[in-house]
Amino acid sequence: MQLNEAEQALLDGKGGEAARRAIEMQIKVGDFFQAERFVVVSSAHVMADSEALGEAGIRFLEELADLGGRCSVPTTINPRGADFVHFQLLGQPEDVVARERRIVAAFENLGALAVNTCINYESITPPRFGEHLAWGDTGTVIFANSVAGARSNFEGGPVAIAAAITGRTPAYGYHLDQQRQATVTVEIQATPREPSDWGAIGCWVGRQVSDYWQVPALTGLRIQPSITELKQLGASLASYGSLAMFHLVGVTPEAPTLASAGNGHEPTQRIVMPPDGIQQVYRSFEPEHEQPDLVVFSAPQLSLVEIRRIADLLDGRKVNPNVQLLLTTNHAYRSLAERLGFVTRIEQAGGLVLDDVCFYILHTRELGQRHGWRTLVTDSAKLANIIAGYGYNPVLRPTAVCVEAAVSGRLPW
Amino acid sequence: MSREFIFRSHPGIGPVVEGEALVSQHGFSARYDMNRDTGVISRETHDLYGQSVVDKICFFTTAKGGVATAWALYDMKMRGVCPKALIFGTTNPIMVQGAVLADLALMDRLEPDPFAIVETGDHVRVEPAAGRVVVTKQQVDSPF
Fold first, then answer.
1. pLDDT of residue B35
2. Which residue, A109, A238, B25, B137, is the most exposed by fewest CB within 10 angstroms?
3. Chain A: which residues have CB within 8 Å of chain B?
4. In CATH, what number is assigned to the domain containing residue B131?
5. Following DSSP, what letter does each residue of A212-271 receive, concatenated?
6. What is the torsional sign of CA A127, A132, A134, A138?
7. Nearest Cα to Cα of residue B9 among B130, B126, B110
8. ipTM entry
9. Could you tell me which chain B residue has the CA closest to the CA of A160?
10. Average pLDDT over chain A, rounded to whole?
C-alpha cells in the first residue's frame, strides 16, 4: 500500500503505540486485497459483544485503551449481550453482565459512543451518498452501501476499532466503483405487502446468491418500500447471502435503471423469484409444535415506528401466559417509546421491551436451554436464520400473525 | 513413496506453518459452524461435522457468516483451540481481518484448484508471504 505522510507517521509510532498497532493491522488487510491506498472515513461502527469477543477480545480492547488509543472519528458500538436493567428477569448470569460492563468501560476509555445499537444509520450516524465508512455488523453495512450509496466493507470488530483510531480504512472491495456493479439480476415476480415479506425476499435471494463479492440487482417490484422494509430486506440478504450490497432498481441511488446498476455492464447471470416465492420462504419455517414458546421482535433493533405498530396490535389484549413476548431496541428509542406510552401498553399486555441488546447475542443458546425455549416466532428473517444454529425451531411469520400467536398461544397455520 | 504438488497464489497472511490437511467441500464460519470451546465442527449439516479443526491445515471453499468471526479466530488462537492455517477457495474480509489479529496463516485463490487434489491427511506446508503451498501425498507402494 502507498502511505501518505500522515499514515507513515502513524506507522512510525508518532501517533502512539495503539495507533501504530491499528494501522499495521489495516495495512496487512489492505495488502491481502491489493489495496493501493487508504481512504478517510467519516465514522466507524464496531461489533463487540461479549459472546463474540471472549476474554482475549476484551483484553485486546482494554490494552488498546491503556496504550492511549482514542477514536478520531464518531464511533458507534453494536448491541451488547445483556440488558443491564432486565438481565435478572431473563435469568442471565452475573458474569455475562460483568464482562459487558468491562467492554462498555473499554469503549468509553477509547472515546467511542457506547450506544449499543445496530441501527446507528437511523439516527446517530446517518450515512451520506459517496462517503467512506468503516462499519461492522452486516446489516448496517448493506444499508449504508445500498440504501444511502455510502461505501463500506464488512469491518470486523478488531479492524473497525483500528479504523476508528486511524480515521481511515484500506480502499478495496465496496470502496471502489468496480465492486459496486451488479453481478446478477433477480426478477422479483412476488408482491411484498409487509416488512417481513421483504425479509422473505432477502432470504430467497440470499439462499441463491451467497458470496460477499456478488451484488444482486432486484427488478420487477413496482412498490416504493419504506425504510423499515429496506432494513428488513438488507439485514436478510446480508444474513443469508453474506452480501454487502444490493441494488433495487428505481429505488436505490446507484440504480435508477438496471443498466446503471451494472455501470453499463449487463449482469450475465439472471434468476427469477416466482409469484409464490414469499410463501415458499414462510413455508420453509415450519413449527414443530402448535404452541410457541416465545415471540421475538428483534434483529435489527426496532425503530419507534415498529414499536408503535406492535403496541397498537397488542392494545388492550393479554399475551398468553405460556408465551414470552420480547422486543429489542436501543436506549434512545426505548426512552421515546416510554414517553409516548408504547412501553406501558406493551408491558400491560405482558411483553418486555429490552434495550441496548439484540436477541441472538444474549448468549442465546444457554438462555434457551435454561428456559426450555424451542419454538420461536418472529417477523425477522435474519433472526430466523441465526437462531436455527442455536437449538431453536424458528418460525418466520408477518408481524400481525406473530402478535396473534403471542396472544392466543397458538400458531394459526 | 510420496508425490509433491505446488500451488501458487497472491501473498497471504501469517507465518509459515506445516501440518496435516483437513479438507471440506463446504464453507466455514467460526461463529455459526463450530463449537469454539472445543474446536469441533458442530453444525450437523456440515461435511466435517464432529471433526476437530485444532492444529489442522483447513481447506474450505468459502468464508461464511457475520462479522463475529473476526473476534472468534483471535479468541480461539489465545486459548490454543485453533487451526494452524485456513485455506479458502475464496475468502471474505472478515476472515482475513480475524487472521491478521490472530496472526494465523490464511491464503485463498490457489492455482491450480486445490479442492480437486488435496485430501484429508496429506502433509501441507503453507508459505503465505511467498504465495506458495506445498502438498505432499503419501502413496501406497504397488505390491507388484
1. 83
2. B25
3. 25, 28-29, 31-34, 47-49, 51-57, 60, 136-138, 153-159, 172-173, 210-213, 238-239, 242, 386, 389
4. 3.50.30.10
5. TT--EEEE---S---HHHHHHHHHHHHHHH-----EETTTSTT-SSHHHHTTTPPPSEEE
6. positive
7. B110
8. 0.93
9. B97
10. 96
B41 neighbors B132 (Cβ within 8 angstroms): no
pLDDT, mean of residues A44-48: 97
CA distances from A374 to A86, A195, A297, A370 (A): 21, 24, 16, 11
As a whole number of Å, the CA-based R_g of chain A is: 21
What architecture is the A287-408 domain classified under in CATH? 2-Layer Sandwich (3.30)
pLDDT tier at A26, thresholds 50, 70, 90: very high
pLDDT for residue A390: 84
Size of interface A-B (CB pairs under 8 A): 109
**Which residues make Cβ contacts (< 8 Å) with residue A86, sequence separation at least 6?**
A352, A354
Instruction: Enumerate residue ranges in chain B where pLDDT < 70.
Output: 140-144
| Tally of helices (H runs) and strands (E runs) in chain B | 2, 9
The Cα–Cα gap between A15 and A24 comes to 12
For chain A, the structural domain boundaries read 5-175, 178-274, 287-408
Place of cell 433477480: A186
User: What CA–CA distances, in Å, run from A219 to A245, A256, A257, A270, B83?
Assistant: 15, 11, 9, 11, 42
Give the full edge-to-edge strand order of the sheet including A75-77: A75-77, A44-46, A134-135
Q: Say which CATH topology domain A5-175 has.
A: Aconitase; domain 3 (3.30.499)
pTM of the predicted model, to two decimals? 0.95
For residue A108, pLDDT over 90 is answered with yes
Cβ separation of B64 and A242 shorter than 8 Å? yes
Rounded to an integer, the average pLDDT of A300-311 is: 98
DSSP class of A145: I
Residue A331 has pLDDT above 70, yes or no: yes
Q: Identify the helix (H) or strand (E) that includes residue B67.
A: none
Q: Let me know if B127 is exposed, middle or buried by CB neighbors in 10 A (0-12, 13-18, 19+).
A: middle
Q: How many domains does chain B divide into?
A: 1
Give me the residue from B66, B69, B100 closest to A29, CB to CB: B100
pLDDT at A389 over 90: no
**Residue A263: what pLDDT?**
80
